[in-house]
Design goal:
Helix content: 40-55%
Structural class: alpha+beta
CATH topology of the largest domain: GTP Cyclohydrolase I, domain 2
Radius of gyration: 23 Å
Strand content: 15-25%
Number of helices: 10
Number of domains: 3
Number of strands: 7
Largest sheet: 5 strands, mixed
CATH class of the largest domain: Alpha Beta
Distance between the termini: 44 Å
Order of helices and strands: HHHHHEEEEHEHEHEHH
Strand order of the largest sheet: 5-2-3-6-7
Length: 293
């Protein structure tokens, strides 16, 4: 079995570059009057930039919420600058951590040594008598299964869009997916319901399930996957609104610890019109078969 570290390296490099660009943008936003690009932050406060986007959003709020008696926006920008430095420090720490991960990933990967190490752990924990063929073969299968959840550095498909003048709700529901718990590496699986209201662009219907699986195929949490699907859809389509609901079962909760076999988890992420309009949100929930969450 061979494991190609190239997708992981590319992803980490992109993350490092993205955070560096974001830091430069932070400085520009704070010290040059928070002159954000058109569409960078929409009317609902959604930011299309990569994290940490909180800095830009807070800078906008500081500039627009001048205390009584302050006659110039410069004072508000100065007020925000000191708070933004804390965010900057956190972002710097993220860059450092990403660089450390990159160094580790660039180390030569020896699949035979990986199988050997895992085999030793398996036999140490469970002994030799419980394997139907061998612990060595089980170790090979486990590593091969994990390989299926290595996230690609970019979308492995074309996110096809086309112009539209339709501004009605579009939903793809009951999208089946599976993922790995980032805390225990146990599988979690379920269905996703994704809806959006187009602005000027619509997306090919098959691309929505593909996007769901793109974000699910990695060690992750349900909360993170829900948020990333919504953010990605909003960013790529500049949609009037995006709604995502995920219903899933987690084997890390069913097969260990509390052993809640029949428990399921529901997460939702509402952006744009679904966040500001109760009617739009209610229509989406009704059409996916849930009057409320």
């Amino acid at each position: 079995m061979t494991t190609d570290p190239e997708p992981i390296l590319n992803l980490l490099k992109e993350q490092v570059e993205a955070v560096g660009k974001t830091l430069s943008k932070i400085q520009s936003d704070i010290w040059e009057g928070v002159e954000l690009e058109s569409g960078h932050v929409d009317a609902q406060g959604n930011c299309d930039c990569l994290k940490p986007s909180d800095v830009q959003l807070d800078a906008v709020r500081w500039a627009s919420e001048l205390p009584n008696g302050e006659s110039t926006p410069q004072k508000a920008w100065m007020k925000g600058a000191s708070e933004a430095s804390a965010y900057q420090q956190d972002a710097n720490e993220r860059v450092f951590t990403a660089l450390q991960d990159l160094d580790a990933a660039e180390a030569e990967y020896d699949p035979e040594e990986a199988v050997k190490a895992l085999t030793q752990q398996l036999t140490h924990l469970f002994g030799l008598s419980c394997w139907d063929d061998s612990a060595h073969r089980t170790a090979e299968r486990v590593l091969a299964a994990w390989q299926e959840y290595v996230p690609p550095a970019k979308l492995p498909f074309t996110f096809t869009t086309f112009p539209t003048n339709i501004n009605q709700l579009v939903i793809v529901k009951d999208i089946e997916f599976s993922s790995l718990c980032a805390h225990h590496l146990f599988p979690w699986y379920g269905v996703a319901h994704v809806g959006y209201v187009p602005n000027e662009l619509a997306v090919g219907v098959s691309k929505i399930p593909r996007l769901v699986n793109f974000w699910a195929k990695r060690p992750s949490t349900q909360e993170y996957v829900t948020s990333q699907i919504a953010s990605d859809m909003k960013h790529r389509l500049s949609a009037m609104g995006v709604a995502v609901v995920i219903e899933a079962r987690h084997t890390c909760m069913a097969c260990r610890g509390v052993k809640a076999h029949s428990a399921s988890m529901i997460t939702s992420e509402m952006r744009g019109i679904f966040l500001t309009s109760g009617e739009a949100r209610a229509e989406f929930l009704s059409l996916i078969g849930r009057d409320r969450i």
